[in-house]
Amino acid sequence: MLKNIDPILSPDLLQVLAAMGHGDDIAVVDANFPADSVARHTITGKLIRLDGVDAVQAVGAILTVLPLDSFVEAPARRMEIVGAPDELPEVQREVQREIDDAEGQSLPMASIERFAFYEEAKKAYAVVATTEGRAYGCFLLKKGVVFF
């Protein structure tokens, strides 16, 4: 155990988050997402599992150590609902609150069409699979810079 580190952040996930560079994305996905097959295409080529953790908890924990990129328009992105791209399901509203709390300001997520999301997730540094049971609990977070 480490002090002041959210216990949701497994050793494998902490290693990935530390190894990521500015501008790298991490995909946090729900239980229905094809996480294993998509993860094989990522930079690490491996899947990080957070069994028993929902997407909101995962994003909240990740944002305790991961700065979002302040040099891009949309450092946080969400998968759009098929046929209703502007609709925000509860899971996405909850993640939006986690982002806003972590950033100390409103930082609206951009949306990505479902199949485009799959392609963007393949370009990510890694995929984090949660056991989020609600549909459209899929997010991309772009790592920013830590200023010393």
Automatic annotation (TrEMBL):
Pfam families: RbsD_FucU. Keywords: Isomerase. GO terms for molecular function: D-ribose pyranase activity; fucose binding; L-fucose mutarotase activity. PANTHER family: FUCOSE MUTAROTASE (PTHR31690). This is Ribose ABC transporter. GO terms for biological process: fucose metabolic process. It comes from the Bacteria. Gene3D superfamilies: RbsD-like domain (3.40.1650.10). It catalyses: beta-D-ribopyranose = beta-D-ribofuranose; alpha-L-fucose = beta-L-fucose.
